[in-house]
Amino acid sequence: MNIPIDQITTFDRVRQASRPQVDALVASIREVGLLNPITVAPTDGGFALVAGMHRLEACRVLGMTAVPAITLDLDANQRIIAECDENLCAPTLTASERAEFTRRRKAAYEALHPETRADAPKGNQYASRQVGDKQPAPRFTADTAASTGQSERAVQRDAERGEKVSDDALGMIKGTRLDTGKYLDSIKNLAPEDQVAKVEADLAPSEPDEKRDTAPQAAVDPERRKLAKLTTDALIDEVLGLRADLADEKTKTLSLKNEREDLSARLAEATSGEQGKVIGNLQRQLHQLKGRIAEHQTAAKRWERKAVKAEARVKELENLPIDMGAL
């Protein structure tokens, strides 16, 4: 069905539309139309957008007054979960965005299924709020992993970052050079005001070279220094985390490769003269995908090197002689 665009609300969404993505869709929709309808949920007097922000914005840019849409009967928490799942499946999220989406999904999921909360009493004191549930709801990490294709470890890590890093700090970090999982982990245990102060300091311009201490320093691998301070249990957890990061990067790379193959196939089919503009658009998208694939392959290699170092440190600690007299 077609729904008037002016009846669709998009407020209270975690992520707003990206202009480059909207521009790319404008060219495609102008040539071949909107191939995939957006998804909305009825509200009082209109509809709330569930999925398809970039498609909706592209239709607005083209001056369309109505847009093809699929209507689902969802409450507010279900809409949040659907929005978060759509974005968490995308390979282009930054660490801060993943943290924010995962935190919001967890809050909505536990509102629907309070029995899954970590602090929920054991037994049947809490019944799921999801109408028609007959089986106990799976834990949040398992449900999110199944819905988004991530590992439970990755979901747990993103949720912790989203819950412990303040909204103010996340807003300052988003889209900057500090927007990495490693940086979020480095500040998550600080008080909210200390998080903001550290982010401000780390984003401030660095001192001129002439004011820095230029005394020669012995080269020390920062990853080696970090690993040397960890206990064996902490190292094992670090290895598991690094392996999860590596698996995520490989999954993203595979997804991008599949998308590239799809674009290549579509490009090969577009041979008629009337589709010249479509071919040009597909070629641009293919070029962008190649760049993103290269970035994720580089990231995967980096995570693999870190994991190898951490595993070597675990073996090193396991082989240390134990002084029985000191026990």
Question: What's the layout of helices and strands?
Answer:
Layout: E1 2-4, E2 8-9, H1 19-32, E3 38-43, E4 46-51, H2 53-61, E5 66-71, H3 76-88, H4 95-112, H5 140-148, H6 152-164, H7 167-173, H8 181-187, H9 192-203, H10 222-228, H11 232-269, H12 276-318
Parallel strand pairs: 2-4, 3-5
Antiparallel strand pairs: 1-5, 3-4
Pfam family, one: ParB_N
Keywords: Coiled coil
Biased composition (Basic and acidic residues): 154-167
How many individual β-strands? Answer: 5
Q: Structural class, from helix and strand content?
A: alpha/beta
- Strands ordered across the widest β-sheet: 1-5-3-4-2
Helix content: 55-70%
Rg measurement, Å: 24 Å
Summed up, the domain count is 3
Mean pLDDT over all positions = 78
How is the main sheet built?
Answer: 5 strands, mixed
- First and last CA, distance: 75 Å
The share of residues in extended strands comes to 5-15%
Number of helices in the DSSP assignment: 12
Shape: globular
Q: List segments where confidence is low: pLDDT < 50 over at least 5 consecutive residues.
A: 322-327
Instruction: List the helices and strands in order.
Output: EEHEEHEHHHHHHHHHH
Write up this protein:
The chain is of the alpha/beta class and 327 residues long. The protein has three domains: 2-73, Alpha-Beta Complex (Conserved hypothetical protein from pyrococcus furiosus pfu- 392566-001, ParB domain); 83-117 and 139-203; 229-319. It is 58% helix and 7% strand. The chain is built from twelve helices and five strands. Strands 1-5-3-4-2 form a five-stranded mixed beta sheet. Helix 4 (95-112) packs across helix 6. It starts with a strand and ends in a 9-residue tail after the last helix.
